[in-house]
Amino acid sequence: TSKKATGESGGKPEVMGVLISHPEKELWPGISKLDLAHYYEEVGDWLLPHIKGIPCSIVRAPDGFKKETFFQRHSMPGQSKMLDEIKVSGDRKPYVVINRVEGLAAVAQLGGLELHPWNCLPDQPDVPGRLVFDLDPDPGVDFSEVIATAKLFKDWLEALGLVPFCKTTGGKGLHVVVPLAPGKSKVGWPETKDFCRELCDRIAADAPEKYVVNMAKAKRKGRIFLDYLRNDRMSTAVAPLSTRAREGATVAMPLNWPQVKAGLDPKKYTIETAWAALKKSKAWSDYAKSAKPLQTALERMKKSR
Ligand code: ATP
Ligand code: MN
Ligand code: MN
Q: Which of 106, 135, 146, 292 could form a disulfide with 82 if both were Cys (CB 3.0 to 4.6 A apart)?
């Protein structure tokens, strides 16, 4: 499909109707800005439901991931018409939101290497739309420990009646993600965050030599930091299939649980390999229909105290 939608205009290539300037500029070694635009075009329809209607910060690295990067939250005057903006209470300045696939080409044009949406429901910043358990291993920790920890979260979350999914981050750890439905009782962010903290606390209490639920870096030595802090109104987590401004042009790769086992190598999933691998694995294909309200899980957690 990428060839069809790619045109030329005045010598500059066009992707999804967006002119790409300096298309040959290298963002990672051997990977150009035009390559990034084509990648977003390929994965756009899959990726969009995870970010549509949701404030989405962008890590921009206009001269490549090794040069200066900046984290853009707010929309800017004169930004591409393919991008949208969203106002949220408590902030005068509107946030960037990507509501159509063409917006992803505009992101590539900006040198946007990473997408970091909030975790709310579309168009409802105050309603949690997913839980993210961000497993952050200290450099000394073997990756097999991170894999085992993700599976431990899976068992807990399933016992609580939720449907967890796993993705690589394109970096050092894994994310366990739970899609949420709004439900009748409209559980808000404070309760949601408390729930996540309690789950992390319980898992850490069973193996304090392996885990910390504390921000303090000193306590993380040789342990996995169970980062529950993604679960708040303005907190972000990298989007599935987002590329990373890191060595090797890795992406945050959606996985099937059977793939979360010994031998899993996050470095294998890159801007060049991820889409073909996902078409084959069909990971996360039942993500949307797996969304559950948090209410039942809150009650089960309470009962098991
Ligand atoms: P890794 O597996 O290497 O930890 P990660 O994406 O989980 O990769 P973290 O540093 O654990 O990286 O951060 C988790 C999430 O928190 C990120 O995906 C990002 O959305 C958000 N985040 C982290 N640091 C920042 C920051 N300095 N500014 C804004 N958001 C951040
Ligand atoms: Mn992390
Ligand atoms: Mn973290």
A: 106
